[in-house]
Amino acid sequence: MDIEARPGAGRRLSAAELAFEASADEGLVQELIAAGLIHPDDDGRHEPADVARLRLAHALASGGISVDDLAHQIRTGSFPFAEVPRLGLEPQPTGRTFAEFAGSFGAQAELLPEVYAAFGLGVPPPETAMHATEEAAVSAFIHVWSMVDDRPELFTRAARIAGEGVRHLVVGSLDLFDEFGGSPPQRMGRGLSVEEAVEPSLLQGGMMNLVLAWLRERHMEHEVFERIVSFTERSLAEAGRKPPRPDDPPAIAFVDLTGYTERTVQAGDELAAQDAAALQTLAQAAGANHGGRVIKLLGDGVMLRFGSAVDAVAGVRGLMAAIIDADLPPPHAGIAAGRFVVRDGDVFGHTVNLASRIAAHSQAGELLVTADAVERLRAAGIATEDAGEVGLKGIGDHVRLARVLT
User: Using CA atoms, how far apart are residues 221 and 213, in angstroms rounded to an integer?
Assistant: First the structure.
């Protein structure tokens, strides 16, 4: 469809153009006009801001909420419908449909359905109107990863990493907004004016864009520099210009809270969620203090990765002490050092499984490690005692363990 007057001052849309840009039915446009929820000018044309309003009305209609229901919510002051475009939900159109956009990729067009799905998004129908940000982002994504490799699995894995990460950020932030009464309807329900009610939401989008850009730069710099340093050290060692690092493999640690399930049953899910959030904060601090990082949260526990068994023990001992100080359920932990596979930000392999099983075997307040780490720990001034040889589910041979002494 030809959209007259590209994005800019003074752009006005016919009902048909409005429906196209919002990927909605023109009949819904007429319903909104009849209900007095959008207002065309004397020539029957609409402001671009009505695109966001129509997209929301279409989403509501898809969920069984009629225009009459929406009008009721607006009349009762429960929802600031007119302010929706100010929330940053007004995408700029390109005038192309998804089918036309996909056609520009040639043979790579067949990647798009899986890429969209991996991003966590529905695949747009062929007639869907495309928007500038979406076209630019998808085009750049396909272009950059094409230079790395052309296998389809690469694109879907890269899209899944990005999609899951951003969705977690967005959903978690909005959930926190709702939990503390930050959404416009909640603030209006407390008697605030519409302007006061929408202000945090108006600022949130820009704030999140700034934080996301800053964090991406900082984390990217850290990861790139770390990998360059590691590569340079190996290259210099291979060239005989620098002695290789001592045989001190990286380590995986699991720290779990004792009696978490019983505590959840007795005290409720809200307290369990608070415990999990507190554990995450403490684990991130303990990891950072000893060159480690949190790999994933496990509800009642956390998995961390460290550069060595010595660092892992130091970090986990600090974390276990912090957990006790925070009045959380008593912790227990297990550590194993050795090779493991790092893939898409996660870790896999025997060492990971072993550390998990050791943690499950440990008792409240106990930190267990594999016996092969004892000499390295002793050299670092960390005392241990023999914890015996045990059989661990899924590991095979019995494993000799040592208990770290406080």
Answer: 12
CATH no. for 1-90:
1.10.1660
Sequence-separated (6 or more) residues with CB below 8 Å from residue 305: 250, 251, 252, 253, 292, 293, 295, 347
Q: Where are the domains of the chain?
A: 1-90, 251-404
Quickly count: other Cβ atoms within 10 Å of residue 254's Cβ. 25
The pLDDT tens digits of the residues spanning 364-396 come to 999 999 999 999 999 999 999 999 988 888 777
Model confidence at 245: pLDDT above 80: no
Token look-up 């406080």 returns 406
Q: Among all chains, which residue has been given the structure tokens 């909005």?
A: 174
- In eight-state DSSP terms, residue 335 is E
Give Cα 178 to chain centroid, integer Å: 18
Neighbours of 79 (CB within 10 A): 17
Answer yes or no: are the C-beta atoms of 18 and 52 closer than 8 Å: no
* pLDDT tens sequence across 303-347: 999 999 999 999 999 999 999 999 888 999 999 998 888 877 788
Find all residues with CB under 8 Å of 256, minimum gap 6, and list them: 298, 300, 301, 331, 332, 333, 359, 360
Q: How confident is the model at residue 4 (pLDDT cuts 50, 70, 90)?
A: very low
In angstroms, the CA 390 to CA 310 distance is 22
User: For the chain, what is the largest distance between any 2 Cα atoms, rounded to a whole number of angstroms?
Assistant: 87
DSSP symbols for 22-91: HT--HHHHHHHHHTTSS---TTS-B-TTHHHHHHHHHHHHHTT--HHHHHHHHHTTS--GGGGGGGT--P
What is the CATH T-level fold of the domain 251-404, as seen in this structure?
Alpha-Beta Plaits (3.30.70)
